[in-house]
Amino acid sequence: MGNNKNAKDVMGDQTNAVKNIISKALRIEEKYLYLRTQRDDAIEEIYEVVKNEVKE
Amino acid sequence: MILDEIKIGNFRQYYGLQVLKISKDKEKNVTVIHGENGEGKTAFLNVIKWCLYNKIDLPEADRLLNERAEVELSEGQMVEVSVEITFEDKGIKYTVKRVVNHSKFNNKIQLSGQRFTVNAIDQNGISEEYRNPINTINQVLPEKMESYFFFDGEKIDNLAKKEGCTNIKDAIKNIMGIEVIENTIKDLKKVSSKFKKEFSHCANSSELSKYSDQLEQAEKEVFKEELGKSQCEINKNALIDQKERIYEKLRSLEGAKELQKQRDKLEIDKANKINKIEEIDRELKTIISTKGYLAFSTSLITKVEKLLETRRQKGEIPAGIKEQFVDDILERKICICGRHFIEGQDEYKCVEAWKKKSSNRQLEDAFIQVSGDLRNAKDKRENLFFEIEKIKKAKKEVSDEKRKIDEELDELSTKLDNKESEDIKELEAKKKNIEEQIEENIKMIGEKEFILNRLYEAKEKLEKVLRNATVVGEKANLAQKRFNETEDTIKALDEVLELTIHNVKNKLQDKINKVYDNFSKKGYKALLNENFELQIIKEHDEQKRPVPMSQGERQITSLCFIGALVDLARERSQKETQIFKGGIYPIVMDSPFGALDPVHKTRIAAGMPTLSHQVVILVTNSQWKGEVEESIFHRVGKEYKLINYNPKKDQNIQHEYTVIEEL
After folding, report:
1. How many other CB atoms sit within 10 Å of the CB of residue B46?
2. What is this structure's pTM?
3. CA distances from residue B372 to B305, B326, B375, B545, B661 in whole angstroms, order as listed
């Protein structure tokens, strides 16, 4: 791991689909952060995000 | 979070309604609450934790109602236990209130309802009551981080112990909102598993199904082993805490005090020797991984040397005649003997034939280079063994010193065992038992790490197979693509996570040193090492050898870490971030000067106001008077005293209670 590399560099190397999945999934997890009983809902929402981002 | 006011109603020692204003003055940012032991200092710390997070770290935690208020309550009447905290955060004024109602029926106290509300007034004066108050508070100051801002000053030195690194790593994760990233990775793994099932199902291939099942199994085992490993780590840390508590007791027992003092010193020395051995091992590993190949290069060097020598003896390299020299003669058409010749003549052909015996420049250069490299490789090889020998010798020396310390520690233990006091004997036996359990846990962690490494390898291979498998059918193809994209996302997030933690660690390192300067110890600096351990080193020591730390020094170093954390959270609040927004936080400390000598008291008192924009300290009179008061009084903005009414001191009083008075 290069010492000078940062999270932005890693994100820069990703495909658009990966970038979009990351950004949307983080937002979903933030929403569910303190709602510990609703983990399955978070998984389901992220599953839909991937399906929408990778369509063909 | 800028604390404004705290209202306490009939909570534990506090009788009636007690109101405190917290200093918001930038220069005089310290609020001091004076109180003797048992008068409600620790209860005050719990006032904040209870109000914000419904947490109580006191004996009989479910007994909230003040004793006097309880006695004064008439049959059928109701009384409130309440705490209300008013603070400002990012321009919004919050009022957080937690209330538990108590009623008396048939001479018994019963809980008769509770409520937790968060009201806010924004910059435009619009007020709102939040529907999800727990969420709101966690967004201002996450519960997981409260222990870094509201804490017992005497116990905070744990952060600077070797085992404190887990807490430090957690603090870094929490302050950066890394929990969100961790949850995302966890859930993406489940999503990936779903796509994996879909794709092996659609592909209708028994082979793919087999690999998919194997991967599923490997993932389950990884989860089980990771959980087991983290449980062992938790157990190990809890046992280390238990051992420390035994040491604390031994430090206070007359017959054991002196021996325990010697043991404390020896254990610091031992920890330093272990650090040194680990450092030597790391150095050895680096040498072996970067130069280790030289050890096996003898036969290759000899072979190349022989080859070059044979060519040299044959006169092939280096050749006596240079190719360029022959070309020049042929171009000039004059031989070195002065004879002229024409192209195609016998003389011309004779000179041209020399070219076969000549060598070109590149080959010559390569020959010189290789000959030099071979000599160099031989020297390096010899040097490698010399270096390894030197390192091994150094390791043996340190290991011998460590063994001597172990022997001395054994002797001390025997002496404690032979004491007549049953208390001491019992404590020593418990300590030995705990040490055995710690060893057992360390062994198990090692075993689990070994298993996990093998599982990670197997998992990676299976993932590769599934990722690259050729599948037929549109549906299967799409599911494979989704599986691959999800796996790529997990990998990217894993990398982001690791980089973020390390970058924050480096950032914290600078901040810790800046804060450490305020606690003035010239010639030393604080270091957060690669393993997330807090250490003190001499400023100009290039080898960065940690200096043994006393409890006072550990307390200072831990406070510096907290100060750095506060600064980082403040800095984060000024940036636009997607996850946890950071903020400005106060620090509330109970008895931070308890077990300190005058020198450390002065240093901590001098540096304390710089830790945060608001610092609240709870102190006894003996902790305050003298060096602490002298160092800090010019920064005090508000001062309160806990007035305790106790039947033991005054027979006219029937029940013990405390009220707060401003000085």
Report:
1. 21
2. 0.66
3. 11, 27, 5, 39, 85
Looking at the DSSP bridge assignments, the partners of residue B118 are B96
Task: With a cut of 90, say whether residue B467 has pLDDT above it.
Answer: no
CA distance B167 to B273: 24
**Tally of CB atoms within 10 A around B603:** 22
Residues 20-39 of A with CB under 8 A from B: 21-23, 25-30, 32-35, 39
In degrees rounded to 5, what are phi and psi of residue B166?
A: -65, -45
Q: Which residues contact B72 (CB under 8 A, 6 or more apart)?
A: none
A chain contacts of residue B184, beta-carbon cutoff 8 Å: 22, 25-26, 28-29, 46
Pair type for strands B78-89 and B2-9: antiparallel
Token pair for B22 = 């917290």
Q: Given the DSSP bridges, would you call strands B636-645 and B657-662 parallel, antiparallel or unpaired?
A: antiparallel
Rounded distance between C-alpha atoms, residue B119 and residue B86, angstroms:
10
Query: Taking Cα atoms as reference points, which of B374, B398, B376 lies closest to residue B283?
Result: B398
Query: Most A CBs within 10 Å: which of B180, B186, B572, as the mutation test of the A interface?
Result: B180
pLDDT of the residue at A2: 43
**Token digits of residue B624:** 């305050």
> Given pLDDT bands bounded at 50, 70 and 90, which one contains residue B57?
confident
The alpha carbon of residue B500 is apart from the nearest alpha carbon of chain A, in Å, by: 6
The per-residue pLDDT for range B592-618, each reduced to its tens digit, is 887 677 777 888 888 888 888 999 999
Question: Is the CB of residue B615 less than 8 Å from the CB of residue B2?
Answer: no
**Residue B521 pLDDT class (50, 70, 90 cuts):** low
Whether residue B527 contacts residue B534, with contact meaning beta carbons closer than 8 Å, is answered with: yes
End-to-end alpha-carbon separation of chain B, Å? 25
Mean of pLDDT values over B27-34: 94
Cis peptide bond upstream of B318, omega within 30: yes
